[in-house]
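User: Let's play a game. I give you a shape written as tokens, and you guess the letters that built it. Ready? Here's round one.
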């Protein structure tokens, strides 16, 4: 194989690749030997069909397979030998080919630019840790204690009030007749929550242990017996007990019931829990800072074919007219996103970052937990959609790259209070929200302008560039 690099224009170049006919014939001979054993032709024993007969019978098909194989192998080898990383799929132009002929073709390729990543090892960003005040921890523990049920039975002459737990047996009728599900044993109701039937709780206020009380209530729309929906039912209730809530004592026993060793251990765990609630969001701010710093790294040329593809993504859902108006704006966004992706990918390759199948499965499970009750649907979605799984792989890959950049970078460590963390996150959210509102308004104005320009007007309206939400540029 002979390779000549020609027509170098920036990142674009042509590779002229030549394979002599002797080499091509050797590939053909190998293929004929391979198929000889599996061909059955009348008058010949298996494996004994002469090559000339095979050529007449299968020559075109064999050459097609051989040509496809040679093109794949030689084009890959030519790129590797010349240390060319293609940006997108190279174009192939056959010049000379055929049975018992030399093979010559031109591979037109756009090369990925050289990327400098050394500066990433000294990249600066803010790294936050939240100092949780002891009073915050105590406040959270008190909230947990408040939500823990702790009812104690009261004396027989104590009347039930809102917030008390009443246990009862009941037997219900509609128009004097029993119905399916009309009996209940040891039913417990916290008065005031109205979780059983609307208005049922209020009628039990004032009852005592061993009282009998008739309660009337309308059966709801979702009642299983459809013929009884919206009918009035009478419930003959026997009060078994009345219990009042008591304040939970916050001590070692309380902590042990929550899975901690003792109260001090619980405080440590709760403090960490509060910190973790802020950590993920603050870490994301740090990563956003890193991405902003990466955008400042200079790359002289960005492959035009990648820019064109990215512009198509950004202009999805737009009319041709809108896309044309916003083309320049989209090209700038596309170049920024591609440049960031190229730098991240180069860093990932240099540091041999890989994504394992186990990491993908962990991420799928994480996604499924975010949709309680629909876990199986989420798992099935990723199993049946390779493109969605590939996108998830790209997200995990990018996350691993950013984590390593953080490890190698120069963090400006800041210990902040919970209130400061809330303020920082609130400002970040407001900035992001305002940006999204601005993009929607620009899109709205652009659409309105397009509509106006379809009508005869005396003054031409000016349109503003429409913007769409940027996607991550990542590898794999």
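Assistant: Ready! My guess for every position:
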């Amino acid at each position: 194989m002979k390779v000549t690099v020609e027509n170098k224009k920036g990142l674009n170049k042509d590779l002229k690749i030549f394979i002599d006919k002797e080499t091509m014939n050797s590939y053909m001979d190998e293929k004929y030997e391979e198929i000889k054993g599996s061909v059955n032709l009348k008058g010949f024993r298996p494996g004994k069909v002469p090559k000339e007969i095979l050529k007449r019978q299968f020559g075109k098909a064999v050459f097609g397979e051989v040509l496809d194989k040679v093109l794949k192998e030689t084009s890959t080898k030519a790129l590797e030998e010349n240390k060319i990383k293609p940006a997108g799929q190279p174009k192939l132009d056959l010049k000379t080919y055929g049975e018992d002929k030399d093979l010559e073709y031109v591979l037109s390729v756009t090369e990925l630019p050289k990327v400098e990543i050394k500066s990433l090892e000294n990249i600066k960003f803010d790294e936050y840790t939240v100092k949780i005040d002891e009073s915050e921890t105590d406040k959270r523990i008190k909230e947990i204690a408040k939500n823990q049920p702790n009812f104690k039975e009261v004396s027989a002459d104590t009347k039930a009030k809102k917030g008390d737990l009443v246990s009862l047996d009941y037997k219900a009728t509609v128009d004097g007749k029993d119905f399916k599900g009309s009996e209940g044993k040891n039913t417990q109701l916290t008065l005031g929550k109205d979780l059983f039937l609307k208005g049922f709780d209020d009628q039990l206020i004032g009852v005592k242990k061993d009282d009998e009380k008739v309660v009337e209530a309308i059966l709801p729309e979702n009642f299983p017996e459809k013929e009884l929906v919206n009918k009035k039912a009478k419930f003959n209730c026997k009060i078994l007990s009345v219990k009042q809530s008591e304040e939970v004592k916050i001590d070692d026993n309380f902590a042990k019931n929550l899975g901690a060793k003792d109260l001090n251990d619980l405080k440590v765990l709760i403090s960490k829990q509060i910190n973790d609630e802020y950590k993920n969001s603050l870490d994301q701010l740090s990563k956003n800072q890193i991405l902003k710093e990466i955008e400042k790294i200079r790359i002289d040329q960005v492959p035009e074919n990648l820019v064109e593809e990215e512009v198509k993504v950004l202009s999805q859902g737009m009319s041709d007219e809108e896309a044309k108006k916003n083309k320049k704006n989209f090209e700038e966004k596309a170049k920024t996103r591609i440049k960031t992706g190229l730098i991240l990918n180069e860093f990932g390759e240099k540091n041999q970052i890989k994504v394992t199948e186990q990491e993908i499965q962990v991420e799928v499970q994480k996604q499924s937990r975010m949709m309680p009750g629909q876990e199986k649907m989420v798992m099935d979605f990723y199993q049946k959609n390779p493109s969605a799984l590939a996108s998830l792989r790209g997200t995990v890959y990018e996350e691993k790259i950013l984590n390593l950049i953080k490890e190698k970078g120069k963090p400006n460590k800041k210990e902040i209070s919970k209130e400061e963390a809330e303020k920082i996150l609130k400002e970040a959210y407001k900035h992001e929200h305002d940006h999204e509102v601005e993009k929607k308004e620009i899109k709205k104005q652009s659409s309105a302008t397009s509509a106006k320009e379809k009508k005869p007007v005396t003054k031409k309206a000016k349109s503003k560039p429409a913007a769409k939400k940027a996607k991550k540029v990542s590898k794999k």
